[in-house]
């Protein structure tokens, strides 16, 4: 069983995908981490003409060991860098096989990202498209950073999320839109537990 979970930054898709993986006993891949790892590896070239070629090399060299430093990968800066490398077609191409082999392992998997239902697993058994309004997403992300002891500028964070959404949605190489056969789940008013219950109900009904 392949479950595809897509949605914008801080929509709750990662937490939801983790919960689904636990519930159905499936392995889970947060595909945003791949783009974040490439972004972080290329950070030193952010304003350099080599940025693109360095990002492509980093994507081609990527393996699971690059995904271990969660603290560095989940920073706001890493998210921003990720969305900059994510517009490069050869970066997406280089990361395709990694995601595809994870998805097609025996028994299935849960993958979350932006283009799982459209590009990586158009053949997924169930597709969920998660949405939540920008203010709710900003507030969730702010609390996540605060729980790590970080000071958060909510105004700046809100704009950062909106900027990243815009870049992701207009990414010509992306595929960030709701697949026709994806189920829409709005989590603006839902707790983590309620969102998970709703997702399980959708999946059980469609299997
Ligand atoms: O999901 P997360 O916020 O960690 O993703 C970081 C960035 O990586 C996104 O803003 C997006 O630009 C990129 N991404 C992508 N395709 C995916 C997952 C993430 O383009 N499947």
UniProtKB/TrEMBL annotation:
E.C. code: 2.7.4.25
Domain Cytidylate kinase: 3-203
SUPFAM superfamilies in alphabetical order: P-loop containing nucleoside triphosphate hydrolases
Keyword Ribonucleoprotein: no
Cellular localization per UniProt: Cytoplasm
This protein's name: Cytidylate kinase
Binding positions (ATP): 7-15
The reaction(s) this protein catalyses: CMP + ATP = CDP + ADP; dCMP + ATP = dCDP + ADP
Organism this protein belongs to: Devosia soli
Main localization (coarse): cytoplasm
GO cellular component, one term: cytoplasm
Family of the protein in this entry: Belongs to the cytidylate kinase family. Type 1 subfamily.
GO biological process, one term: pyrimidine nucleotide metabolic process
GO molecular function: ATP binding; CMP kinase activity; dCMP kinase activity
InterPro entries on file: Cytidylate_kin, Cytidylate_kinase_dom, P-loop_NTPase
Keywords, sorted A to Z: ATP-binding, Cytoplasm, Kinase, Nucleotide-binding, Transferase
